């Protein structure tokens, strides 16, 4: 395969934001993740926890709580507004002021018909979920102080609200309070500091479980209002609680970064009477755990350290597979970087700005080359308005930059010879107002934007500006356009259970057969016109667009099966690219490795070593041929965000060390460690 | 620990018509422990002298008659009793030549067996469950016998057990796949019926055995799938109401023997003592199937203790009398002597520790499971000596051991005999015999205050076959007799001394005046260590200032630690002269004199090195008096100071207390006597000195901790050499 010069880039200071809330939709196995920057992610638990949808956030909008009402997703935040999201268009559907000051908590009753909102002014407001929106129904009896946590009784008849120092139980029918449970502050806490009930859970037998700022998980009898049991879990706060569907297991997230599991067990073997017993403690976070979910076979937790951890409960799992292993999700499952191969430019997408860098140059030989010219930051492009960037792209020639928010798409003409000049293309066609995915044709003459209603708009680019060519809609009539190459756009808005691809080619239009798992990365090989796809379950497909069928190589791969170690990887492939010199070389990467697939070489045997570069290195030249296989995996670089092969066969590798992310986090709660 | 000795043949077996039968109906005891009564399956009864393998007499019934149950010896009347043709009881004496001319009585029902135990009247068990004393039956032979068993119920096994006050007859019966156990008690006559628990995969039990110990009858029965169950019955009379109905008999799994595939057909298990079971007819777990073994299993630890391959067919018959197993196999009846030691975990495992600490000075004494089944003794003598001489040597030594135990002569004679015994015996044999010997000697010492074989006990302890569980009285006896040499050996060698005894030792050692101890000859190595410790720091040719940069100056001034390095530059000779001339304030804190004599120190060192568990030790430590505590603390402080100095690497001793052991003892002592030490005025100086030194050490270690942190950072930074934002590298892919 040979030597590659690698530009190891670490100056992309990508910073994910902290996880604030989690919500699970059991029917479709979707996990909604709200982050502190207001963005929302939908993960599909059935599909290897693939991040299917991302709704970008906006400035000044902090989400505090999330709730699913059936298939619909609602959020509320400290700006006092309730938001419903449009899952097809990946944007807000509408927002509604709850008119009670900042909203701290939001829950939906188990029937999915009513939303309860806890406000700063001490009211619990009930909203009715209608077909076309939500309708204010009533206020429950107003209390003094803010409502910090809410939980419905599974029957929907009662509502439990946690506040500072007190828990109220309301009758949802009359709106009157039934019980008042006083929560004492822990021993030794200052008198001025009240015990804040951060989270409550109401169980079907009337038991109420609360987690508070003095580090206790308290179990109350909801009928009599008495404290049954108190578990001191931590010295710090218990921030989040979640109970399993069958109500046998409960998890609590704490400020120490631990997740504590409780189980409803009979204390004496064989006896009927059961108690909540603290059973296990998981420590996967360094900072506050702000949200937890108990999903029967796994515990999902997220918090200030920005990662999402899926911890399997091994006692509930019969067969141990790669899907049931501990998973940590650090990076988004999409590209934040685009690269111009010829102009050697990199475009980094941040929350509200773009950065354009030019790569450096080197001379000489050796393992680590001296740098002749340092990399240069050419541009810092800020978007206008409050909305965060949804997607961005840099054309392969390096002459165009396009960036889109939920409401606004901008195209820039870029000239960077000696001096940098950037001009905004002013007259964009009206239809192209926003995009979820953007890509350029490989000769930079066309721009394709995937937008609302699963449609793809095509724009022709020229020196003078851009002109609108057409709109492609899935399953629409056949149109032929004489384009030099193919365009593929995964219409992510259609939903990934059904993979629906729009393919426009020289003569034909065809649909790739449906596959059950979502596409994480795909690309068309410009030399062979083969569509290369990688799915969330790590399967690889290659589809010949000319013959409208899978290629022989793809059939071979599926007849033989991929190597087990390949299938066991737990991060999705986020980029596919091809070698400009050798069309049989496909370059892919996930978070921990990049891989060059040489389609001419035999596939690895099931029992052979998959990552065999070190072995090959130690072998003499002649024997290497016999031991080498198609998957050339390099694990030298870790925590990868992007890998691309430039025109001159040099690789660009963009790393974002997790340590650097951790270093930028606020300090965690102070813990006394032994011997310090 | 248990062992099987070399066996020998008592007699050949008469070939029978039906092959699964061995040809022997039963073996019963005769008048003394060397004679047995063997009843063969046809017509004759023979008395053998076991040690001589010789028949002493034989009786045969007429053609056409047959002996229907094993003959027994009635020790009350000194007569033999046998049953012929199921219902004729024959009674004869040794002098009778012809059995047919002896006394006979025909009874009205068929007899199952006659049971006899020494010093009791024999008991006759009838086929239908009736039980009579022999003498009462013979007075009226034609008396009607009641039917206890049901229509289709048959007796499978029976035995008689002697408890403290009375006799019990136990017999088991089978009725349509159900198994019952009957317990017949006498005066008043009661019969209790128990039903044996039936498991899902259990067929009829293969063999039964019953023993009496600790006021309970332990019934052992064995199923063809290899599980040995135990049921416990009270030996006393049960409540009368319970006698009416059938009681279920609870059981517990005692042993699960590996049997390979298939089920066992003819096999037998026999309890030897509370922890050991002899099993015949099961293959050795590591040997292949098809071979039959006699195995001794320990039921406490579920381990195989000894085994012997038996040639020929196994009939599943085994008897045990007076330390000998009688087994029928092939065409012979073999006698295999055995020995079981009191089972203790320390005997099996505790020696591991000893062999480790002693390094290679002795070979491993842990019995190896691999060598045991094949060769029970080192094979070196087997080639030269014949089987008979080996056996004779063994019996000789057994006799010698018994002689020592029962000998009432003066100390010198006993010592001489013990020495003889130790020279002659082989390793495996010693291991078993030494424990028993020591127990006997200790018992005798207790009985006769003047008797104390000092040398013998030391020799026996030095064999390293002992542990505290084997001879619980030895160490306390040594303490009472103030035999500190023996004490030292025991403390060194016993891995399992209870905390109470450790504390008792400590108390005696601390309480005894130094002068008295100086005359005791202790182990030279321990004394050498103490000498090296008390010699103090050698004012050596140090030209580089203090050793290891140790600076006593910051001890006194708490905040002045930072100035100390400057002061350290002072030339070395000045420092040493300082030490000699001027009584510097802090020097006594470091260079203190040994508060105890050499011998006492050596003994205390042994106490420090014993194994203990702190929660168990703590209550006993509270028994020490204030002066003892202070003395011991002073000694510990002395050791700690010595260890903190540079004398330690110069000392080459085989055994010395580790610094962690010293620290743990200090903590325990302070913990146990906290209030006492706070209140005692004489402890104040000691405690403040200790505190000062500990404080300086803590300071030192906290500094070390800081250094460790920064070194860790250096190490980490070296690993991730590339920290820049951008670099261009070359990667080669193959």
Automatic annotation (TrEMBL), chain A:
Gene3D superfamilies registered for this protein in UniProt: YVTN repeat-like/Quinoprotein amine dehydrogenase
UniProt-listed InterPro entries: Quinoprotein_ADH-like_sf, UTP4, WD40/YVTN_repeat-like_dom_sf, WD40_repeat_dom_sf, WD40_rpt
GO cellular component labels: 90S preribosome; small-subunit processome; t-UTP complex
GO molecular function: RNA binding
Membrane-crossing segments per the record: none
Gene Ontology biological-process entries: maturation of SSU-rRNA from tricistronic rRNA transcript (SSU-rRNA, 5.8S rRNA, LSU-rRNA)
Family annotation (Pfam families): WD40
Domain of life: Eukaryota
UniProt protein name: Anaphase-promoting complex subunit 4 WD40 domain-containing protein
Organism of provenance: Electrophorus electricus (Electric eel)
Gene that produces this protein: UTP4
From TrEMBL, chain B:
GO biological process, one term: maturation of SSU-rRNA
A GO MF label: RNA binding
Keywords: Activator, Nucleus, rRNA processing, Transcription, Transcription regulation
Cross-referenced InterPro entries: NOL11, Nol11_C, NOL11_N, WD40/YVTN_repeat-like_dom_sf, WD40_repeat_dom_sf
Keyword Transferase: no
Matching SUPFAM superfamilies: WD40 repeat-like
Nucleolar protein 11 N-terminal domain: residues covered: 1-338
An annotated GO cellular component: nucleolus
Gene3D superfamilies: YVTN repeat-like/Quinoprotein amine dehydrogenase (2.130.10.10)
Predominant subcellular localization, coarse grouping: nucleus
Any matching Pfam family: NOL11_N
Protein name in the entry: Nucleolar protein 11
Organism expressing this protein natively: Electrophorus electricus (Electric eel)
């Amino acid at each position: 395969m040979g030597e590659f010069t690698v530009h190891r880039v670490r100056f992309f200071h990508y910073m994910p934001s902290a996880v604030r809330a989690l919500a699970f939709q059991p029917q479709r196995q979707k996990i909604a993740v709200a982050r502190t920057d207001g963005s929302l992610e939908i993960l599909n638990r059935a599909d290897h926890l693939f991040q299917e949808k991302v709704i970008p956030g906006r400035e000044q909008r902090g989400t505090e709580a999330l709730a699913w009402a059936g298939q619909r997703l609602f959020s509320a935040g400290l700006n006092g507004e309730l938001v419903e999201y449009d899952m097809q268009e990946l944007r807000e559907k509408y927002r509604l002021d709850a008119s009670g000051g900042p909203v701290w908590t939001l829950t939906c009753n188990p029937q999915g018909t009513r939303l309860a909102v806890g406000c700063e002014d001490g009211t619990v407001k009930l909203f009715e979920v209608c077909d076309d929106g939500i309708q204010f129904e009533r206020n429950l009896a107003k209390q003094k102080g803010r409502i910090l946590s809410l939980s419905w009784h599974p029957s929907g008849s009662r509502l439990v609200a946690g506040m500072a120092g007190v828990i109220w139980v309301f009758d949802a029918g009359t709106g009157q309070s039934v019980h008042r449970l006083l929560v004492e502050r822990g021993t030794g806490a200052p008198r001025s500091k009240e015990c804040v009930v951060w989270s409550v859970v109401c169980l079907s037998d009337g038991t109420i479980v609360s987690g508070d700022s003095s580090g206790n998980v308290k179990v109350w009898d909801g009928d009599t209002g008495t404290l049954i049991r108190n578990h001191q879990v931590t010295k710090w706060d218990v921030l989040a609680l979640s109970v399993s569907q069958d109500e046998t297991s409960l998890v609590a997230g704490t400020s120490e970064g631990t997740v504590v599991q409780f189980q409803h067990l009979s204390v004496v073997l064989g006896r009927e009477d059961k108690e909540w017993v603290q059973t296990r403690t998981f420590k996967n976070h360094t900072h506050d755990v702000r949200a937890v979910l108990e999903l029967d076979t796994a515990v999902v937790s997220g918090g200030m350290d920005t990662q999402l951890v899926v911890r399997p409960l091994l006692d509930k799992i019969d067969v141990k597979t790669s899907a049931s292993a501990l998973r940590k999700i650090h990076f988004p499952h999409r590209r934040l970087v685009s690269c111009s191969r010829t102009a050697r430019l990199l475009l980094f997408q941040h929350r509200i700005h773009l950065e354009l860098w030019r790569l450096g140059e080197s001379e000489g030989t050796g393992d680590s080359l001296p740098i002749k010219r340092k990399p240069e930051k050419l541009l810092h492009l800020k978007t206008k308005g409050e909305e965060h960037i949804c997607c961005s792209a840099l054309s392969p020639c390096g002459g165009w930059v396009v960036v889109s928010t939920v409401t606004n798409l901008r195209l820039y003409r870029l000239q960077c010879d000696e001096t940098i000049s950037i001009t905004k293309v002013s007259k964009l066609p009206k239809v192209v107002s926003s995009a979820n995915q953007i890509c350029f044709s490989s000769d930079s003459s066309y721009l394709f934007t995937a937008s609302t209603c699963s449609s793809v708009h095509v724009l022709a680019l020229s020196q003078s500006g851009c002109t609108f060519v057409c709109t492609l809609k899935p399953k629409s009539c056949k149109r032929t356009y004489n384009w030099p190459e193919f365009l593929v756009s995964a219409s992510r808005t259609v939903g990934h259970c059904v993979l629906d691809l729009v393919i426009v080619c020289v003569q034909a239009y065809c649909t790739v057969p449906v596959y059950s798992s979502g596409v994480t990365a795909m690309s068309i090989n410009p030399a062979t016109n083969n569509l290369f796809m990688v799915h969330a379950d790590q399967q690889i497909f290659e589809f010949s667009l000319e013959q409208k069928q899978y290629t022989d190589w793809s059939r071979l791969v599926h007849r033989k099966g991929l190597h087990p170690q390949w299938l066991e990887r737990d991060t999705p492939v986020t980029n596919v690219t091809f070698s400009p010199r050798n069309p049989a070389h496909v370059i892919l990467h996930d978070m921990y490795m990049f891989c060059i697939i040489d389609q001419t070489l035999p596939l690895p045997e099931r029992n052979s070593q998959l990552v065999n570069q070190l072995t090959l290195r130690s072998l003499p030249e002649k024997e290497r041929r016999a031991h080498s296989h198609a998957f050339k995996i390099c694990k030298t670089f870790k925590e990868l965000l992007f890998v691309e092969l430039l025109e001159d066969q040099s690789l660009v590798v963009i790393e974002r060390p997790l340590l650097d992310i951790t270093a930028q986090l606020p300090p965690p709660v102070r813990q006394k460690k032994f011997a310090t | 620990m248990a062992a099987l000795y070399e066996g020998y043949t008592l007699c050949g077996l008469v070939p029978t018509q039906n092959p699964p039968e061995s040809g022997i109906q039963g073996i019963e005891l005769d008048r003394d422990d060397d004679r047995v009564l063997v009843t063969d399956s046809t017509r004759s009864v023979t008395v053998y002298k076991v040690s001589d393998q010789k028949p002493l007499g034989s009786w045969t019934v007429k053609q056409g008659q047959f002996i229907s149950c094993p003959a027994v010896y009635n020790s009350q009347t000194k007569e033999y009793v046998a049953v012929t043709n199921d219902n004729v009881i024959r009674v004869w004496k040794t002098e009778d030549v012809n059995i047919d001319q002896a006394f006979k009585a025909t009874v009205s029902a068929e007899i199952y067996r006659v049971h006899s135990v020494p010093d009791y009247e024999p008991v006759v068990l009838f086929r239908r469950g009736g039980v009579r004393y022999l003498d009462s039956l013979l007075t009226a032979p034609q008396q009607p016998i009641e039917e206890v068993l049901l229509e289709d119920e048959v007796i499978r096994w029976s035995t008689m057990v002697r408890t403290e006050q009375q006799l019990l007859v136990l017999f088991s019966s089978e009725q349509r796949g159900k198994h019952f156990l009957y317990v017949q008690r006498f005066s008043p006559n009661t019969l209790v019926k128990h039903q044996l628990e039936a498991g899902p995969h259990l067929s009829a039990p293969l063999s039964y055995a019953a023993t009496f110990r600790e006021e309970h009858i332990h019934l052992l029965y064995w199923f063809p799938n290899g599980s040995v169950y135990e049921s416990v019955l009270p030996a006393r009379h049960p409540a009368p109401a319970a006698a009416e109905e059938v009681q279920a008999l609870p059981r517990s799994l005692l042993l699960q023997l590996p049997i390979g595939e298939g089920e066992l057909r003819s096999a037998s298990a026999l309890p030897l003592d509370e922890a050991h079971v002899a099993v015949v007819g099961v293959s050795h777990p590591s040997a292949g199937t098809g071979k039959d073994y006699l195995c001794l299993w320990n039921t406490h630890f579920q381990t195989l203790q000894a085994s012997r391959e038996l040639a020929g067919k196994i009939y599943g018959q085994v008897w045990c009398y007076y330390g000998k197993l009688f087994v029928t196999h092939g065409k012979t009846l073999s006698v295999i002597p055995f020995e079981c030691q009191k089972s203790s975990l320390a005997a099996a495992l505790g020696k591991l520790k000893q062999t480790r600490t002693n390094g290679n000075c002795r070979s491993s004494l842990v019995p190896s499971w691999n060598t045991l089944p094949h060769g029970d003794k080192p094979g070196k003598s087997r080639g030269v000596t014949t089987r008979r001489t080996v056996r004779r040597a063994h019996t000789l030594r057994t006799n010698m051991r018994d002689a020592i135990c029962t000998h009432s002569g003066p100390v010198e004679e006993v010592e001489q005999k013990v020495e003889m015994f130790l020279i002659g015996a082989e390793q495996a044999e010693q291991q078993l015999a030494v424990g028993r010997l020591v127990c006997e000697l200790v018992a005798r010492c207790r009985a006769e205050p003047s008797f104390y074989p000092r040398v013998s006990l030391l020799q026996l302890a030095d064999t390293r076959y002992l542990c505290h569980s084997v001879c619980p009285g030895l160490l306390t006896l040594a303490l009472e007799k103030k035999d500190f040499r023996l004490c030292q050996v025991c403390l060194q060698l016993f891995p399992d001394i209870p905390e109470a005894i450790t504390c008792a030792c400590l108390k005696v050692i601390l309480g005894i005046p130094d002068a008295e101890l100086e005359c005791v000859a202790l182990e030279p190595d321990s004394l050498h260590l103490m000498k090296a410790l008390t010699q103090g720091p050698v004012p050596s040719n140090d030209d580089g200032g203090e050793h290891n940069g140790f600076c006593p100056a910051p001890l006194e001034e708490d905040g002045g630690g930072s100035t100390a390095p400057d002061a350290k530059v002072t030339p070395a000779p000045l420092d040493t002269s300082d030490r000699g001339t001027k009584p510097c304030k802090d020097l006594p804190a470091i260079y203190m004199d040994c508060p105890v004599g050499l011998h006492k120190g050596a003994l205390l060192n042994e106490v420090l090195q014993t194994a203990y568990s702190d929660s168990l030790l703590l209550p006993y430590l509270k028994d020490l008096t204030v002066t003892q505590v202070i003395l011991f603390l002073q000694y510990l402080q002395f050791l700690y100071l010595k260890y903190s100095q540079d004398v330690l690497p110069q000392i080459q001793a085989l055994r010395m207390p580790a610094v962690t052991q010293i620290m743990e003892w200090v903590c325990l002592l302070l913990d146990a006597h906290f209030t006492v030490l706070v209140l005692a005025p004489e402890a104040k100086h000691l405690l403040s000195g200790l505190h000062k030194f500990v404080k300086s050490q803590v300071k030192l270690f906290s500094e070390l901790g800081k250094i460790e942190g920064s070194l860790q950072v250096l190490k980490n930074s070296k690993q991730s050499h590339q920290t820049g934002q951008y670099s261009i590298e070359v990667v080669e892919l193959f």
